[in-house]
Amino acid sequence: MKIIIFYNPLKLSKDNLEQNILKPFNESGIEVLDYASAGSTLEEEQAKVADFFVVFGGDGTVLKIAEIAAIFSKPVIAVNTGNLGFLSSYSSSEIKELIEDIQKENISFSFRHLLECHVGTKKVVVLNDIVLLKSQPLGTMNVDVKLQEHTLFSFSGDGLIVSTPTGSTAYALSAGGPIIHPELNVIQLIPLAAHALNIRPFIAPPTQKIEIILKNMSKGFAYVTGDGDIIHRMEPAMSVYVTSSELTIKLAQRNGNNYLNALDKKLGFGRRFE
Ligand SMILES: NC(=O)c1ccc[n+]([C@@H]2O[C@H](COP(=O)([O-])OP(=O)(O)OC[C@H]3O[C@@H](n4cnc5c(N)ncnc54)[C@H](O)[C@@H]3O)[C@@H](O)[C@H]2O)c1
Ligand SMILES: Nc1ncnc2c1ncn2[C@@H]1O[C@H](COP(=O)(O)OP(=O)(O)OP(=O)(O)O)[C@@H](O)[C@H]1O
């Protein structure tokens, strides 16, 4: 078995990685082809021959490697060294269990759909969401949102979230959206603080092309972000285009420790608090 390790340098030092993570892997016979800070580039040849990408960090670190994992079509095993670690299947104290599961091929994977965003000359692929948001606390933006040329929303507010099912438990959850099981392939649109009584979150099919037009701002300017990273500054009359990506990623889930378990254990979903 060959793996490439990505890590969050803000959460894990290179010495700690080399001492406490690389060592057990190398002693187990699992070949670590390379290890790199999440978000950095990869040797194409090594990426091609790896069996898995193993990520040490929290959700944000997983998000940083989602696109490269999708491009090389490599399954992702996330090991939480962060806080919530909603997307993680192992904790950093479970290296031995992880090694054993890799050796015994005792890991199942769930396919996760991605979004593709075009704005200006930029193109990004995201696992959670694309967010259009005003850059300062004051004022509002006027936004038109089109689905295949039909204007679905036209509102004044703070912005808009376009989320995948995976992202439905991230910003979309905080913005009042429903939880969408990641086996579904849909696109969720959630206006942020829309000043209207007739606007609700909308769930679109993956075939729809979404155009978000920033009509104007009462003050300042806006940003469009992808998985929490700024993609582009937005000025009035600029558009953002979002479609479902053809790429998907396979995200490890420990046998028995599936999505509904994560909802229960990490978000306390549906649990009665005595
Ligand atoms: N008010 C909010 O809740 C808010 C605001 C901005 C961004 N975000 C989210 O943060 C994400 C970026 O994550 P980050 O860790 O780099 O930012 P971050 O450090 O600001 O963390 C945001 C929180 O969201 C959690 N999270 C991220 N993806 C998740 C998912 N798919 N399901 C459940 N929880 C998830 C993280 O664990 C963290 O607790 C963005 O994609 C966006 O969804 C949330
Ligand atoms: N390689 C990197 N270089 C710089 N920043 C990174 C890198 N990897 C992750 N980050 C940033 O570090 C921040 C925290 O990372 P991460 O989300 O993984 O940890 P966490 O917030 O503690 O865990 P969780 O998101 O699960 O609550 C995120 O904003 C993420 O964008």
UniProtKB/TrEMBL annotation:
Gene3D superfamilies: Probable inorganic polyphosphate/atp-NAD kinase, domain 1, Probable inorganic polyphosphate/atp-NAD kinase, domain 2
Record-linked InterPro entries: ATP-NAD_kinase_N, ATP-NAD_kinase_PpnK-typ_C, NAD/diacylglycerol_kinase_sf, NADK
Gene Ontology terms, MF aspect: ATP binding; metal ion binding; NAD binding; NAD+ kinase activity
Residue positions of the active site: D59 (proton acceptor)
Cofactor(s), names only, from the UniProt record: a divalent metal cation
EC number: 2.7.1.23
Top-level taxonomic group: Bacteria
Binding residues annotated for NAD(+), in chain numbering: D59, G60, K64, N128, D129, D158, T169, A170, Y171, A172, L173, S174, A193
Main location group: cytoplasm
Catalytic activity: NAD(+) + ATP = ADP + NADP(+) + H(+)
EC category name: transferase
Record's keyword terms, sorted: ATP-binding, Cytoplasm, Kinase, NAD, NADP, Nucleotide-binding, Transferase
GO annotations of cellular component type: cytoplasm
Compartments reported by the entry: Cytoplasm
Pfam family, one: NAD_kinase
GO biological process: NAD+ metabolic process; NADP+ biosynthetic process
HAMAP family: NAD_kinase
Similarity remark: Belongs to the NAD kinase family.
Function noted in UniProt: Involved in the regulation of the intracellular balance of NAD and NADP, and is a key enzyme in the biosynthesis of NADP. Catalyzes specifically the phosphorylation on 2'-hydroxyl of the adenosine moiety of NAD to yield NADP.
Protein's name according to its UniProt entry: NAD kinase
Species in which this protein is naturally found: Petrotoga olearia DSM 13574
